[in-house]
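dumping the sequnces here before i forget
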Amino acid sequence: DQQVKQNSPSLSVQEGRISILNCDYTNSMFDYFLWYKKYPAEGPTFLISISSIKDKNEDGRFTVFLNKSAKHLSLHIVPSQPGDSAVYFCAASEVKAAGNKLTFGGGTRVLVKP
Amino acid sequence: NAGVTQTPKFQVLKTGQSMTLQCAQDMNHEYMSWYRQDPGMGLRLIHYSVGAGITDQGEVPNGYNVSRSTTEDFPLRLLSAAPSQTSVYFCASSFRLAGGSEQYFGPGTRLTVT
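..and the predicted 3d for all of it:
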C-alpha cells in the first residue's frame, strides 16, 4: 500500500508557463514533506520542503502548498524553464524511534518545451 | 569535499552470486540510508543507519544486509542475488535533524541480475 502517491507519471509544459505537480499521502504521522529533482544518471537532489504545520513554502521559482485536510500537496514551478526537465519525487518524513524515515512517491517526469 | 560516493557505477551478477555495494560520505553525517529505484515505484528504503553500530530495516530489507562500523561508510551486501534485485541503488546521507533536513544522494549503482 503506497503511502505517498504521485498520480501523474508525466507532465509537459511550455517554457515560461506554470508547472503544477501533485502528491497525495495517507499517513497522518508524516511531519515534513519534501520535493526532490532527479536528472538521468544522477542521484536525486533536494528542492524544497514544508513542515506539516504550514500550508505554503516558497523558494524562488518553487512553491509548495500543503492541504492537510485533503492529505494533498503540490509543487508549483513558475516560470518553467527547459532546465527544469527532470523527474520530480515527492517524499514524506516520519519520526521513528531509530530516526526520521522518508517515503517517496513514484515520481513525475516533467518536460519543459522551449 | 566529494559528498556521497558509490562504487561500482554498474554491475552485472548471475543469480546466486553475492556482492557488496560501497557507499561513503565525507560530510560527517550521522544518518545514512540505502534506496532502490524501480520504474513507477519511486525510491524505496532498504536499510538505514543513525550512527556507527546502529542500523534498522526499511520498507524492502529482504535479501540485503548492512553494517555501519564507521561514520563514513555504509556498505550494502546482497547475500544471494536474484533477478528481482535488478534495480538502481542509491545511497544517501544527512544530519540527524528534524524531518525537513535534506538528504544528499550518491550517483547510484545500476545492478543487473541475470
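The mean pLDDT of chain A is 94.
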